[in-house]
Design a protein that fits this description.
By secondary structure, this protein is mostly beta strands. Residues about 1-30 have low confidence and may be disordered. It has 3 domains: about 1-130, Immunoglobulin-like (Sandwich), CATH 2.60.40; about 135-220, Immunoglobulin-like; about 225-440, Jelly Rolls (Sandwich), CATH 2.60.120.260. The protein is about 0% helix and about 45% strand. The two termini are about 55 Å apart. Strands 21, 22, 25, 26, 29, 30, 31, 32 and 33 form a 9-stranded antiparallel β-sheet that branches. It has 1 helix and 33 strands.
């Protein structure tokens, strides 16, 4: 226990009035009382007017209190007093007026003069519990109505909870989910979503105050949203046999209708990048069979995070001031599979694998085909496909056009769902749209 000493001055009205003294006798001295005590006060006592008027002394059960006794008159011949109390199980009082608590409760202290005057004073002594209990659980607005998503982030409810008063001796609380099929909650107050639904988390105090409070929790379906990277500032270069750059289509080589690399970024399925296949021949360009497939490198101008490819096949007609080209929906003009690489310096590239591999070559990112991969079928495909790849962060992305109808064979590239050999028709590969993006969870 701590020993403390208060110096609070008595504000009580002293019942025994002192007679005015005249002449040279000391203040407060009456000749007829022969220097005996007329009044006893204690500085640590306060006057309480509620209920039965009384003088009270209060202190906590983990403290000791030294009393400071005031005797009137000041020149009393014998100022010695005795201290007694009624409930020894609650408090011990020493001969010097030191109060030593044993338990909290209410006792009566009697301070008596020893000079034969018969003067004594009674005080109510309140020994209070030093372990202050909570009177309320306070939860911020964010913690009272919690909204989560299936597969989404957790919520730290403990960060929203405080107890009142601030000096509550035991600030710990417990947390319990009232439906663990909807959410679970850890002992530390972290809520994890499980399934769509509504429930409550019950918070309880542990200090003996037996307070509790419920917080509402709603778990909603997880919403995944595709966020395409803006292509406005992208540039693209091609890597081709003899460095021809691209194969123009319609108009003239000086003013082509389409076929240019930048046509992959114009948002139209009728315009496209056109490159000659190995083994194909067009306009004097004839990459040898088995030569390195053509590729293109996109420069996004800054490092970006992405986890899917946007891709569309040529579908529909296209016109510009140089002329027009008609619809050509043969699937042998499409790219069947690609190998993707990333770089931050434009020179050293690292493989970017598909999110889920298919077939014998785990590096191939297969491009969806409405009419399958095999045969000279036609199909209108003006939709843009979203193709998941391993989440990556690069500035440059290189796309190797590895698989097309001419090299789609049983001994080389095969999609497991479409076995067989491709057709040798068609001399070019055409890509209508190419993009990149990431998945945002909402």
């Amino acid at each position: 226990m701590r020993k403390i000493s208060y110096y609070l001055y008595l504000t009580a009205v002293i019942a025994t009035a002192m007679t005015a003294i005249t002449g040279c006798e000391p203040q407060g001295f009456e000749p007829e009382n022969d220097g005996k005590v007329t009044s006893i006060a204690v500085k640590e006592a306060v006057y309480v007017s509620s209920g039965t008027p009384s003088m009270q002394i209060s202190f906590k059960d983990n403290e000791e209190l030294q009393l400071n006794v005031v005797i009137l008159p000041q020149d009393a011949k014998n100022k010695e007093v005795t201290f007694t109390n009624k409930r020894s199980e609650l408090m011990e009082v020493t001969g010097t007026g030191l109060l030593k608590p044993k338990a909290f409760g209410t006792d009566t202290l009697i301070v008596s003069a020893t000079d034969g005057s018969g003067v004594s004073t009674r005080f109510v002594v309140n020994i209070t519990d030093h372990m202050i209990k909570a009177t309320a659980i306070n939860v911020t607005a964010a913690g009272r109505d919690i909204k989560l998503k299936v597969g989404g982030t957790t919520f730290d409810l403990a960060a929203c909870v405080t107890l009142i008063p601030a000096d509550t001796w035991d600030k710990s609380v417990t947390y319990a989910s009232n439906d663990e099929t909807v959410v679970t909650v850890s002992a530390a107050g972290v809520i994890s979503p499980v399934n769509v639904g509504n429930t409550t988390i019950t918070i309880k105090t542990t200090d003996g105050s037996n307070l509790s409070m419920d917080c509402n929790v709603t778990v909603q379906d997880l919403v995944k949203r595709e966020v395409d990277i803006d292509r406005a500032n992208w540039t693209v270069t091609t890597q081709t046999h003899n460095g021809y750059g691209y194969m123009w289509d319609g108009g003239s080589q000086a003013a082509p209708v389409t076929g240019l690399p930048e046509h992959m970024f114009d948002g139209q399925s009728g315009s496209y990048l056109s490159l000659v296949k190995p083994g194909g021949s067009i306009n004097g360009v004839a990459p040898p069979e088995g030569s390195t497939p053509p590729s293109f490198i996109v420069d996004m101008k800054t490092v970006r995070e992405f986890e899917y490819i946007k891709w569309s096949h040529r579908s529909g007609s296209y016109s510009n001031p140089a002329g027009s080209v008609g619809t050509n929906n043969y699937n042998y003009l499409r790219v069947y599979g690609i190998i993707v690489e990333g770089s931050n310096d434009g020179e050293n590239f690292t493989l970017i694998a598909p999110a889920e591999s298919a077939g014998a070559d785990a590096n191939i990112v297969w491009i969806p085909q409405k009419g399958s991969y095999v045969g000279s079928v036609t199909s209108v495909e003006d939709a843009i496909y979203t193709i998941p790849i391993t989440k990556s962060s690069y500035r440059y992305v290189k796309v190797n056009l590895a698989v097309q109808s001419r090299n789609y064979t049983t001994d080389k590239y095969q999609h497991p769902d479409y076995p067989g050999n491709g057709v040798t028709s068609g001399n070019t590969m055409q890509i209508a749209e190419f993009g990149l993006g990431e998945i945002v969870i909402e």
